[in-house]
Fold these 2 entries.
Entry 1:
Amino acid sequence: MDIKNVSRDIDDFFVDDNDPKGSGFQVKLCADLIVYYDGNVYPLKSNRDGALDFYHNALEILKPELRYVLIDGTGRYKKITPKTYEMLPYWACDDCPTRLAMGVHLDGGDTPESRSDHSFYFKEGWGGCLRMIVPVEFILDNPKGFVELAVKMCQRLRFETGQGGFSLHLHHDYGTNGIHIRKLSQRFLGLDIGSPFYWSDTLIQGIKTVNWLTLVGDRLLKKIGGRDGLRERLLTDIPVHDLDHGVIIQAGPKPTLGDVNAGDDISYYRRVSRVLEPIRVPPEILSRLNDIGGRNNTRRWMARFDNNPKLWMDRFIPINAKYGDDENDD
């Protein structure tokens, strides 16, 4: 897998798409760890220890590269100052007035609109989410170390679902329901796609997808027999890492992009997906979602690892091609 070539092709592919800020930045291939929690049942103050574990461990890795901050509601990036890093711990402390919604996005790059694969994201409303974005090499150079880091970051966190592996860093103004995202989602099956802000309220009710690492909280695990039932279904060659309030399921020794053109092996991902299918986002909710290349494509994408999936493409997909088949997908 030549990650550098894939990353360059993805950069080139999106240059001709609708550019939100005139900078050429829509998406960046990255690795990430993202967790979703119930902001109504376990808001930040009652989830403080776990949330701050995630935050401080992420900062140890990201801080040298972070340059800009976007606070939800302000609409523009500002330069990070030392006080920026005190914001989330203050929101989590007992002295902070109760907030119904809050969010902060810390980003790298030479300018606010630069492509960056160093980022931290926090959002809380009805649903909450925490996300760390790192370069793909961070996982590829030390897969075992990334798993150990994920366990450390999430050990005390009360969460519902989450993923870790290859993903996309999306520009905050970029809409992902168009053909560019649709084609990308059909080519790279091991790539997690979608806006965390869009999904955070939904994923307290079921899992969105599996990735190399899939996090499932104890509440959802009860629906498939708890931790013991999960292990019985997965068998012993798929590691399950225990956390205080759930598990991390590891689909193989290292992540894969699941490139359909290259015939990447996604058998581990399929096995995990088959076991977790009963706790996927409920159909009545799924029917309203269109974040991954349109409503129909979103539904197909979420089922792409099913045991006998229906293929919706019948040809190779050259990621750097300019497509003329901009079909409607609503």
Note: Residues 308-327 have pLDDT under 50 and may be disordered.
Entry 2:
Amino acid sequence: MSTVNDVIPSRFSIGGMSTGQKITILVTILFLAILIFATFTTTGFYSVQNFKAIINAASLVGIIAVGMTYIVISGNLFSLSVGTTAAVCALTFMWALRFGLVGGIVITIVFGAVVIGLQGLLVGFTGANPIIVTIAAGALQEAVAIWISGGVSVYPPDNGPSFAFLASPLFGIPFPVYVFVAAVILGEIFIKKSRFGRGLYLMGESPRAGRTAGLPITRLTTGAFVVAGVCAAIAGILIGAFNQSGTMTASGTLTVDSISAVLVGGTAVIGGRGSVVRTAIGAIVIASISDLLLLRGYSTPVQLLVLGVIVTVVVILSYLNSERAGRS
């Protein structure tokens, strides 16, 4: 029987696809243009405080985007429930602190992994559309969370363990930044070096080749969603720690921003190509654009409009490059 390594094309090795590299260069140029524009037009953009705000925002979005990268590379489009799961995990963390700090973190991470992992199991086992499954799952999570919490914020228990360090700077840098860097390094190594990660690339690049190689499609799909669930849970913990409470409004635009970061980072929307490191770059670009628009007084709808246009252009360029490569 063929193995994963036998059927992965040489051009596909480690996901170093030319389309993604081109998009990364394009995004880097865009980022430099933003910095130059902001330098001459936006007061306060180059302050230390604003820089910390950008990297903190990029970290929260980026942690979720690391998990989203696994789903997209696997060829399962996106999860539209990760933002909701992160908010629910913030609620869960606040409640679970009654079991101690370590207990609260473990319970929350397991909860996030199970909730999103079950969605992956459903998608992988039945072949259901991941968009429909995750929309339904997100709505269900939100409804249950509001029902249980009564629609109000959840606060940590009295005399509960201290979790202030999760939201405090360490050597002047927000703690979530360290978590983000660790997530990117571990996520990149795992998806590039492990058999599981190579299986995701192959499954996304060519489902037929994946079946020929005897890949466990259901297991791989579930695994990709579990990784996304762990990342969403970690982000939820950090959000809860920062707000010192859990609320469903904390989801904000996390889902949209994380998808934008993945696509702007050059991961192919159809799967099979991408990089966690490039996703991290995408998250920083997205956070910088959002911050620039916020400083210039633009509302959230305008920010979403601009991000939507950028993502659309990136997707079109990716498609055109793929078509050109296919004809050559």
Note: The chain has 13 helices and two strands.
